[in-house]
Design brief:
Elements lengths: L7 E7 L6 H9 L8 E7 L6 H6 L6 E4 L6 H10 L5 E4 L5 E2 L3 H12 L3 E11 L5 E7 L7 H6 L9 E4 H4 L12 H12 L3 E12 L11 H21 L5 H12 L2 H7 L1 H14 L12 H10 L1 H18 L2
Helix pairs in contact: 8-9, 8-10, 9-11, 10-11, 10-13, 12-13
Length: 324
């Protein structure tokens, strides 16, 4: 490695995480060695708690950019990306922690394979009553070959489980209009632009579960709307590249259907657009893997998606009202 350039820039957006940000930073500092430099870049997104004081404890070992007002984590990530200096880039949320030694393994894997994107495993953890950390679940990285069909099958990794060459991501931006599925959107666009994606069997980071997680405050409706918005971007990208085959159109129709029950309940306009678009993609559409209830699959086959899901939504509203 060139000693004048850090091996990795770890970009950590933070907002009012004074109690947790130190653990994230220490997990990054533990990756450093004389032969392996890590550029730790914190973007304070207008915190109003004691975050500034917590960051001062690491003065001289990290870089801090302070935004004048809270603008959202994706704006903070974009600011961090524009200031990154490492050959590779890792995004880490300020309430999560890297696993010891993961960056060295991921960079070595990227260098050996000449890959510009490395995906690894991750684990979800939560503190127990004694303050210790218990592992809830362990996840292995998916096989992303072939890339497009893997994306259409829903394969991806969360924010901290991927390492990117800066040459790959410096032309990308996090979508600042997204709040729930932003990591999936970013992963999809990065994967579409990557020359080579590899996976390592190492665990990259611990995704800490706690009551103040921002993602927990987001609604099912926002999730459904963002799901469709991201699929539309993916569809447009494939069409522009001439890679939207008939088979992929049918798979996209199935994936659009995934959130249709939510839209039928809460967003009539989004639901009607979804119905029309599904049948534009697949005139003979019948839900398959994205619909777990067999009777709804049968109803869609004989009544069509609009009537079947409208009836289902009416029944749900009636049952909910009767239970009050």
């Amino acid at each position: 490695m060139n000693g004048s350039q850090p091996s990795v820039s770890v970009i950590i957006p933070t907002y009012n995480r004074a109690a947790l940000i130190g653990d994230a930073i220490n997990s990054c500092l533990a990756q450093c060695s004389p032969a392996f430099a890590v550029d730790i870049l914190i973007v304070d997104d207008g915190s109003t708690d004691a975050t500034a004081a917590a960051l001062r404890e690491f003065e001289g070992r990290i870089r801090v950019i302070v935004l004048s007002a809270n603008q959202g984590r994706n704006r903070a990530r974009n600011v961090g990306l524009s200031n990154a200096t490492g050959r590779y880039v890792k995004f880490l949320d300020s309430d999560d922690v890297l696993v010891p030694g993961c960056l060295l393994i991921e960079v070595a894997s990227a260098e050996e394979a000449e890959a510009d994107m490395v995906i690894a495993g991750w684990q979800t953890v939560e503190p127990d009553v004694a303050g210790r950390t218990d592992t809830i679940a362990q996840f292995d990285p998916p096989n992303m070959e072939p890339v497009i069909d893997s994306l259409l099958a829903g394969k991806a990794v969360p924010t901290g489980a991927a390492l990117y060459s800066r040459s790959l991501v410096r032309v990308l931006q996090w979508d600042e209009n997204l709040r729930k599925l932003d990591d999936w959107d970013w992963f999809v666009r990065a994967a579409l632009n990557a020359r080579k994606i590899i996976r390592t069997r190492t665990t990259s980071y611990s995704w800490r579960q706690h009551p103040t997680q921002g993602i927990r405050s987001e609604t099912m409706l926002r999730n459904a709307r963002e799901h469709h918005a991201i699929l539309k971007k993916l569809e447009e990208a494939l069409a522009e590249r001439g890679e939207l085959t008939g088979g992929r159109q049918k798979r996209l129709a199935q994936y659009y259907y995934k959130e249709m029950r939510v839209l039928s309940l809460y967003d009539k306009t989004g639901f009607e657009w979804g119905v029309r678009h599904i049948y534009q993609l697949d005139a003979d559409f019948v839900p398959q893997d994205e619909e777990r209830q067999w009777w709804i699959r049968v109803a869609c086959r004989f009544l069509g998606v609009r009537r079947a899901l409208s009836m289902h939504s009416t029944a749900k509203r009636y049952i909910k009202g009767a239970g009050r």
